[in-house]
Amino acid sequence: EQEYFAAGVTDEITSRLAASSSLGVISRTSAILYARSDKTAKQIGEDLGVDYILEGSVRWAEGDDGSGRVRVTTQLIRAADDTHIWAQPYDREIADIFQIQSEIAGQVVERVGAAVEGTAGPGTVGRPLAGPPTEDLEAYSLYMRGRFHRQQLTREGLEQASEYLQRAIDRDPGLAQAYAELVRVDLAWQGFRFGPADEIMPRARARLARALDLDASAPEVQVVLGGFQMIDGDWRAAEETYRRLIELRPSFAEAHSRLGQVRGVGFGDLEAAVRESRLATLLDPLSPAQHQRLSRWLYHAGDYEGSSNTSGCWSSIRSPAPLPHRPPGTPIAGSAATKRRSERRNAITTSTRTRVGTGSPTLLRTTPRQGGGRRRSRHWQRRRPRDRTPFWSRSHTP
């Protein structure tokens, strides 16, 4: 019961920290791999080039009358020597969960900013924080459950996500984020070929239209809007959408990745495609998808060695801890551990590990690192196509 709640709280804190222009926030998809890890703070720092770790736990209890209390404990740790810099418990009514999330984000930026000169001002997160998505705590709880199950990317998970999100909308018909999350469920359902496209896509477009009517500025809505603009071939509109989204959340890896795809496919701008894809990989270093995209863009840009290195990197690393929806030892992502140590010294990162539930780490960086892993894939070296013309300029005959 507490697993989805911990994941939801972590996501919300990550989103708030991602609004900071002075800190780079590593994606939850990479951070979650350390949620159940037995590794020490120093080991995580060595793996990911992390200087700071925000470790936390989340517990909540609901009474018979529907009221409840939540206890969130956090501590900021310097990874190099395992020194505890700051710790703060929060024990309040569950109705205060939004305020707790904002306070944690603000204090993290303040503490990290004090440790690194000029990175952030006291008590700020770079931009004004968005308000809670809903005032109905039951709807919020259902929304977090739906988002948690959607991220499992299994048929059962998508079915459960759809059920929870629909119940959230029944509780609060104005919850735009729930409609946007349902769109992502539809797109995942279609991507896995679980249903016919002529039924799924019209439903997804209708849900997107409703989300836009309710709150077109919400980042969760913007990201699915950009996806449909890409599907429709409206590259200019998609570029504007993702640039606007990056302005709201500079550390949103998915937005950088999709902007790179827009620039590369829509405009043939390989330099921008590689740049944005590399940024996405830095912000989500343990995501196989991000490394795969970067490898492909490097290849089309003519950097075959870089493409091979990146390909070998993401295909060879295994997860540090088993996940509920992924068997132990499953290959997952790029080798952040192979980053050069000189590059690591240029990065400042903070992670959040939740001890209760499966909340994921949140990683912050003030200076981006460059480069990928150094392993080479024999498969890529052995099968190098003769036609090196960019794929969008080739003529295809049926």
Strand content: 5-15%
N-to-C SSE series? Answer: HEHHEEEHHHHHHHHHHHEEHEEH
The total strand number stands at 8
Number of helices: 16
Describe the structure.
It is built from 16 helices and 8 strands. It has 398 residues and is α+β, with helices and mostly antiparallel strands. The strands form 3 sheets. The chain has a 4-stranded mixed beta sheet, sandwiched between helices. It has a two-stranded antiparallel sheet with strand order 1-8. The protein has a two-stranded antiparallel ribbon with strand order 5-6. Helix 1 crosses helix 4 (97-115). The longest helix has 19 residues, at 97-115. It is globular and about 55 Å long. The protein starts with a helix and ends in a 16-residue tail after the last helix.
Task: Give the topology, please.
Layout: H1 2-18, E1 24-26, H2 28-31, H3 41-48, E2 52-62, E3 68-78, E4 83-93, H4 97-115, H5 137-150, H6 155-171, H7 176-191, H8 197-215, H9 219-231, H10 235-248, H11 253-267, H12 270-283, H13 288-300, H14 304-316, E5 317-318, E6 331-333, H15 341-344, E7 352-354, E8 363-365, H16 378-382
Parallel strand pairs: 2-7
Antiparallel strand pairs: 1-8, 2-3, 3-4, 5-6
